Amino acid sequence: MKCLLTALMTVLVLVMCGCNSQNTNEAANNASRKVSDAANTVVNKTREVAQNVNNSAGPTINDAAITTKIKTKLLADSITGTTVDTTNGVVTLTGSVASEEQKTKAEKHAQETEGVKSVKNELVIKTQ
Question: How far does CA 88 lie from the centroid of its chain?
Answer without folding.
Answer: 18
